[in-house]
Here is the input.
Amino acid sequence: MNCNKAIKEISGYLDGDLDAALKHTLEAHLTYCNHCHAVYDSTRKTIDLYCDGKLFSLPEDVHTRLHEALKRKMQEHA
Amino acid sequence: MTELPQAILASSEGHLVSEAKAGNYSAFEELVNRYEKKIYRLGMNITGNREDAEDVLQDAFLKAFEHLPDFREDSRFYTWIVRIAVNEALMKLRKRRNSRELPMEDSEDDNGEVVVREFADWKPNPEQQYAQAELERILQQGVNSLPPGFRTVFYLRDVEGLSTEETAELLELSVGAVKARLFRARLRLREELSKIFKRG
Here is the structure.
């Protein structure tokens, strides 16, 4: 497996989408290719960073305005 | 935050929906309290800015309130509100089409090569090396560097945790197109963040 092919398969590998033979070949490549291993590892970390629930937290003023808008809407319907 | 009765706070989502449909507004407020953070994050991830994310948040919940009688309860309320919010966010992006944004249907979608230039390892625990606000700014810049169609797929799959099939259905794309966009979105984001987080 060359590096171009390995990089193309990293996303599917992270999703557990690769068949056993391809997975094995990619894993073998990642053990000796530092470049591809760095791409794999940083792609995984990229996903982890965005998954972190602390990011893009809801600002208090946005929360307040949402509930005020909701109250107005509910009063219209009452 | 509004004080809600204890019975409401402890209710299941299905029960809250039934109560809200019957006219119990506290039940609807509790649904909003449960999901507002996630829907705001959805708006931030797809639109890439605070103002639009706030509009998405408000419009999605107000629309859900308005159309609650039509909600058939054959899916979770949460799935329904995500669907509404994604549509609101995509509409925002379409309205911005004459700005510098790339169109939703990116021509490089399925066949373009992804060029990887950054091969360095990252510094350990980048999230601990930056203040929260700075890290958010970096991540937001990364999201903004993606074409909207890629950004939306990345958010739904990797942040929201929808399956490839669910994402495809929601965005009316083929499974193959979702996978292709996800692959490119992940590598592009990685490339952007690597410029900042790489060692040395």
Summary: Confidence is low (pLDDT under 50) at residues 101-110 of chain B. Chain B has two domains: 8-95, 126-197. The two ends of chain B are 46 Å apart (CA to CA).
